[in-house]
Write a structure and sequence with these properties.
About 60% of the residues lie in helices and about 10% in strands. It contains 24 helices and 9 strands.
Length: about 575
């Protein structure tokens, strides 16, 4: 069977994007938020968690699949959904561009631009890119629905709901969908309501399509709804989003974690910084061509262009007024890439048509390659400068699985929770009590390796200065104790400095359970080893609750399978279009 050229070319673009994103993932340092999002998934499938207090479950289930295949937590296994879904997103961008502008060259350029997007390479972490992949698929089918095939609205709803189940951020696009759906339907008289002969007319077909689409969305997100219902029923609490944003459940659970209040000053500052600093720094070409292409796109396809612009506007309007996390804004180079590809071919046709397009394309490849190499040169040193990455590599090679590792409390607990997720680590504040009870553990005593990791002088080791000072005195006292009883064997130098000491303890292996029961981070037991330590444990009691719980799990497993299968959808569409 002959493979269509369009599939071959698109696959090459995907492979290029995959390679660049894999390199980036291997070297980019892991931040405090990503530590949380990489620890929660570990063993979440075997723990049978319907959802979590922090985020919806789909992304976590996908990551845990990577852990099971990759043998545990690493930068690559943690980030595999962002790597793979981010790379395949280039094909969806190709399809959207082709559907909007009917120009294959423009579609290729758009896909290529995003594959090499510097901003996307630098900030391709956490769950945002995975969620945006599904949002792109949803947009593609939504555009098809606008063109007359209302049943495509079902797929648009399916993939938007999957995106929300990966990260609710894509629900910010719903207003854009509604505005376009209403305005387009009104003008073409195909919407839910339109005016005819001076009267309002209800379109039954449109109403039916919207109802089915709504039911699909509810079914897809059913795991989160059932989880929150059962959790609220038993404990009076709900997950972070329902509690902090919707005001349902005990707010005391998330005290201190409330969302920032929206401010105009923050909105203007983040928006200005993004377009005047971040995008010119990482994606100057996409930014320039994107804005130039916007005008051409508007003339060619008003509703599709308006839809894409409105998704950016709704994202910025909400997020930029509250937070500046760069991973959230990867959506902007995605959309600008679509406009940029069309902008380049239209500029060539109008201004430089005497120059063959292959020369323009060659120049584009050179410029984008230089940009990508420049960004990777910035990224690659990040691994060596990240103390958590350095400690992770050291621990994997030098600290045995049966060792006890005591941590200086002056080291931010997220660092060692991530590094020693599969080892017997103990925060230093617990050590005095443990030391008093070493002789009380049942079983024959053994000599177990003991490691102490100290925060080096002059460093805050991941803490805010005020938090570091709060724990400084105890940390210094504990470190003095271990300096006298263990041998210093290594120093790890990065942005922070860690001192490694080694000794031994004569104690029964029964001590491990006491140590491991202290392993919690961000409301969650590390590795879900001791489920009773989870703040969101619930037990379905009535027959209805048990049936609801089982049904929700059935939907969740189906969601995961559909999400994995969605990676093949763009290739299938390409092959069908090229017939």
């Amino acid at each position: 069977m002959k493979i269509p050229k369009v599939v071959v070319y698109s696959l090459l673009i995907v492979l290029l994007g995959l390679a660049l994103r894999t390199i980036s993932a291997h070297y980019v340092d892991i931040g405090s938020d990503e530590m949380i999002y990489s620890l929660i998934p570990y063993n979440i499938i075997s723990a049978e968690r319907l959802s979590t207090v922090e985020q919806a479950p789909l992304y976590f289930y996908l990551v845990d699949i990577g852990y099971k295949i990759g043998g545990g937590i690493s930068l690559i296994s943690t980030r595999w959904p962002s790597i793979v879904f981010g790379a395949v997103a280039s094909i969806v961008i190709f399809l959207i561009s082709l559907e909007l502008f009917q120009h294959k060259k423009a579609a290729y350029v758009s896909a290529f631009l995003f594959a090499l997007s510097g901003f996307a390479l630098r900030w391709n972490q956490e769950m945002d890119m995975t969620s945006y992949f599904f949002a792109l698929l949803s947009l593609y089918f939504f555009i098809l629905a606008l063109k007359g095939n209302q049943k495509r609205l079902y797929f648009a709803a399916l993939f938007l709901a999957l995106g929300a189940l990966a990260k609710p951020i894509v629900l910010l696009f719903v207003p854009a969908y509604l505005v376009i759906l209403i305005s387009h339907g009104w003008k073409t008289k195909s919407g839910l309501l339109h005016r005819q002969d001076g009267k309002f007319v209800y379109n039954k077909n449109a109403g039916k399509a919207l109802l089915i689409a709504g039911i699909i969305m509810v079914l897809v997100v059913m795991p989160v709804l059932v989880y929150n219902y059962l959790l609220y029923q038993e404990k009076g609490m709900t997950d972070y989003y329902f509690t902090v944003l919707a005001g349902v459940g005990q707010s005391s659970v998330y005290a201190g974690q409330e969302a920032e209040l929206w401010t105009l000053q923050r909105f203007l500052g983040i928006t200005k910084g993004f377009f005047s600093d971040a995008m010119p720094r990482y994606d100057a070409l996409i930014l320039i061509l994107g804005f130039l292409g916007l005008g051409f796109a508007w003339k060619k396809e008003k509703y599709g262009t308006a839809l894409l612009v409105l998704t950016i506007a709704s994202l910025l309007l909400y997020l930029a007024g509250k937070m500046g996390s760069p991973t959230h804004y990867v959506w902007i180079p995605i959309v600008l890439s679509i406009f940029a590809g069309y902008g380049l071919v239209r500029i060539h046709e109008r201004v430089t048509s005497k120059i063959k397009f292959r020369y323009v394309l060659a120049l584009l490849v050179i410029l984008m390659s230089i940009n990508a190499i420049s960004v990777l040169k910035e990224i690659i040193p990040l691994r060596a400068s990240s103390i958590q990455n350095v400690l992770h590599d050291y621990a994997a090679e030098n600290i045995p699985a049966h060792a006890i590792v005591v941590m200086d409390p002056r080291i931010y607990r997220g660092i060692y929770a991530w590094v020693f997720y599969n080892k017997h680590y103990l925060e230093g504040t617990y050590f005095p009590e443990l030391a008093q009870n070493l002789n009380n553990f049942p079983g024959q005593k053994q000599e177990i390796p003991l490691y102490y990791i100290e925060c080096g002088p002059g460093k805050n080791c991941g803490w805010k200065p005020e938090d570091y000072q709060r724990i400084y005195s105890f940390g210094e006292e504990l470190s003095s104790f271990f300096r006298q009883r263990t041998e210093k064997i290594s120093e790890l130098n990065a942005v922070d400095k860690f001192l490694i000491y080694k000794g031994s303890l004569l104690v029964s292996p029964a001590v491990y359970e006491t140590i491991d029961r202290t392993h919690t981070h961000w409301y969650t037991p590390v590795g879900w080893k001791y489920l009773d330590a989870a703040v969101d444990n619930y037990t379905p009691r009535t027959l209805l609750d048990k049936l609801l719980n089982k049904f929700a799990f059935l939907i969740l497993y189906a969601d995961v399978l559909v999400a994995l299968g969605a990676l093949a959808v763009p290739f299938y569409i390409l092959a069908r279009r090229s017939d």
